[in-house]
């Protein structure tokens, strides 16, 4: 899939993508690093070996997660997330949001957020906002693969909300 450069101006740029390839973490950090910004904050979400199902005990032996999405819809929602972050933190200069699709093995990166801003506080808050609202509002479904136990859908994918609602309800962790 081809990345979609959005809201590009001399001072602000977005890089939004859904890809079936490994995430370009170092490349996105380089892209987000610009001379007028003193902070680049990244978040990389990886596939872990266990999950915590809703209302149940921890389920182990996860070997991979298969991410399913409609790329066009996911990219559109991710753009809304990034633009909502820019509205809150206008001094932000670059935001990259990249999500994997397809089968992703344990330990591999599944989602990447990279944010650059003039100062660390704005970069940290914008990055946290982006991942939290992305998780709440971008239509990505997860099928967990477990060693010797088959597969099962992660129920949280059913709780997708509107970006504006998720952005309005967002509060940073204290």
From TrEMBL:
<dbReference type="InterPro" id="IPR003448">
    <property type="entry name" value="Mopterin_biosynth_MoaE"/>
</dbReference>
<dbReference type="GO" id="GO:0006777">
    <property type="term" value="P:Mo-molybdopterin cofactor biosynthetic process"/>
</dbReference>
<dbReference type="InterPro" id="IPR036563">
    <property type="entry name" value="MoaE_sf"/>
</dbReference>
<dbReference type="Pfam" id="PF02391">
    <property type="entry name" value="MoaE"/>
</dbReference>
<protein>
    <submittedName>
        <fullName>Molybdopterin synthase catalytic subunit</fullName>
    </submittedName>
</protein>
């Amino acid at each position: 899939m081809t990345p979609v450069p959005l809201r590009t101006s001399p001072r602000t740029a977005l890089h939004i993508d859904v890809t079936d390839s490994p995430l370009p973490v170092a490349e996105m950090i380089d892209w987000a690093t610009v001379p007028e910004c003193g902070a680049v904050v990244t978040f990389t979400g990886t596939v872990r070996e266990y999950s915590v199902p809703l209302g149940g005990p921890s389920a182990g032996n996860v070997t991979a997660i298969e991410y399913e999405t409609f790329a066009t819809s996911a990219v559109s929602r991710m753009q809304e997330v990034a633009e909502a972050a820019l509205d809150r933190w206008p001094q932000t200069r670059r935001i990259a949001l990249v999500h994997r699709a397809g089968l992703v093995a344990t330990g591999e990166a599944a989602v990447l957020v990279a944010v650059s801003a003039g100062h660390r506080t704005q970069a940290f808050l914008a990055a946290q906002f982006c991942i939290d609202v992305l998780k709440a509002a971008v239509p990505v479904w997860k099928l967990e693969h477990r060693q010797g136990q088959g597969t099962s859908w992660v129920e949280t994918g059913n709780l997708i909300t509107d970006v504006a609602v998720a952005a309005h309800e967002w509060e940073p962790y204290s």
